[in-house]
Amino acid sequence: MKPTDVRIESVAHCYEDYLYRTPIKFGGTAVDRVTLVNVECSVRTVGGKIGRGFGSMPLGNVWSFPSRVLGYDATLAAMKALVERVGRIVGGCTTVGHPIDLAWMLEPEFHKAATEVAAELRLAEPIPPLCTLVAASAFDAALHDAFGKVHGLNCYHTYGPDFLSHDLGHYLGREFARETLQQYLSRSPQPRMPLYHLIGALDTIDSSDIRQRLDDGLPETLPEWIRYNGLTHLKIKLNGDDLGWDVDRVARIDRVTAETQKDRGVGAWWYSLDFNERCRNVGYLLEFLAKVHEQAPRAFECIAYIEQPTARDLAAHRDNVMHEASRLKPVVIDESLLDLESLRLAREMGYTGAALKACKGQSQSLILAAAARKYGLFLCVQDLTCPGASLIQSAGLAAHVPGVTAIEANARQYVPAANRPWEERFPGIFRVTDGTMETACLTGLGLGAV
Fold first, then answer.
1. In angstroms, how far apart are the furthest CA atoms of the chain?
2. Quick one: which of 48, 143, 166, 265 is 20 to 30 A from 149 by CA?
């Protein structure tokens, strides 16, 4: 036991619901709403000092619990039931430790609870491990936030041996013995980072796509967004089951982007491509890349990386190796990344990058960031349309992991109402005008949000 260790004193949570400004398409499903879970956590140090923390995360049930047999309301209800169980597990924890150690100890209990909830609700299919991570992530965030605040420090100053009792070998095995988590992180955030803007499969590209304008004061076409935020980084959602549409979509976006950037006097921009695991096999991806290279060579050159092209269950699809595709562009896992075993399997199958996500838990994201950095993988931090405190946590993760080059922030497009309470306090995060977020401000106590 270290004198800095804490015991969880109390945990409470509540929900917020928002309708999206415009729908977003995930894996073939259009989503028009979001439920946030907000968590408050109190901790007590060994010396008796009390600290209080806050965490928030979208439940993201369509992404984390995709189902052909259960509808939106059923998967959301299952996630909420699991959140209730996670809350009881966290609140009942009497172990003293660092947040990462507590999370490492409790995660198996969360997965066990998911199995029990699925049985009690008589669900037609089990709750996926990814869904369990998302359901628990706000509790983990609140614990990290409380830990930093009780010690009067930003969380990223609490990941060294002065606070953590174990080296990385404890979490990741002998390969990481005598290495510390802090050596893979930066104590200070990058001062500014480019913002990735999402172009969803349902989003309008130019004015010819608009049937009726929203007229709500925000941009409604890609050129409008580029000028409004000064964008240079664009994330393109693709269908993965319609080759002609996918190729034409990229080519059209590139034409519109090039014209807009020329008017702005901007000569360089980048794309990331996200198939949300919809490609039936790697052959689809290779054919797609070949056609983009042929029909829109400038767009091909602008591709920075490709995200999760095929099914998330890597072990069940071992034939979908990415070696050939990864020689063309970095290919990163997102939905597949659940633990060190999945990271190692992805490397074996030819993936060259990993997408970190705050919604999988601050503790797990940090540990896997260290492993990915040791393995020399391409790194990015992805968003779950995170507003408010969850965006601040996600931006903090991106800004403190060396090698991450940009931040994704979709809530400003789809659920801006959830950001409004935060805009005055963090204008550099929530009001982007030059294509970058001002992440130098992410130095407050705890996770830096409140």
1. 66
2. 166
Q: Judging by beta carbons within 10 Å of its beta carbon (0-12, 13-18, 19+), is residue 395 exposed, middle or buried?
A: buried
Helix, strand counts (H, E) of the chain? 16, 12
Q: Among candidates 160, 9, 144, which has minimal Cα distance to 445?
A: 144
Please state the three-class secondary structure of 300-313 as a single string.
Answer: HHHEEEEECCCCCC
β-partners of residue 7 are 44
- Cα distance from N-terminal residue to C-terminal residue, the chain: 28
- Exposure string for 70-107, b = 16+ CB within 10 A, e = fewer: beeebbbebbbbbbebbbebbeebeebbbbbbbbbebb
Give the residue range(s) of CATH 3.20.20.120 domains in the chain: 184-441
pTM exceeds cut of 0.85:
yes
- Looking at the chain, which residues constitute the CATH 3.30.390.10 domain(s)? 6-183
**Alpha carbon of 241 to those of 14, 19, 26, 288: distances in Å?**
38, 28, 13, 11
**Tokens linked to 432:** 């982007």
Q: For 314-322, which contacts have Cβ atoms below 8 Å and span 24 or more sequence positions?
A: 314/342, 314/345, 314/346, 314/349, 315/345, 318/349, 319/281, 320/281, 320/282, 320/349, 321/282, 321/349, 321/350, 322/282, 322/349, 322/350, 322/351, 322/352
The C-alpha atoms of residue 179 and residue 169 are separated, in whole angstroms, by 7
* Averages of pLDDT over each 10 residues, the chain, 450 residues: 96 98 87 97 96 98 95 97 98 98 98 98 98 98 98 98 97 97 97 97 94 94 98 97 97 98 98 95 98 98 97 94 98 96 98 98 98 98 96 98 96 97 95 96 93
- Letter for the amino acid at 113? A
Task: List, in sequence order, every residue forming a beta bridge with 25; answer none if it has no partner.
Answer: 30
- Is the CB of residue 406 less than 8 Å from the CB of residue 221? no
CATH T-level fold of 6-183: Enolase-like; domain 1 (3.30.390)
The structural architecture, per CATH, of the domain 184-441 is Alpha-Beta Barrel (3.20)
Half-sphere exposure of 401 (CA within 13 A, CB side): 33
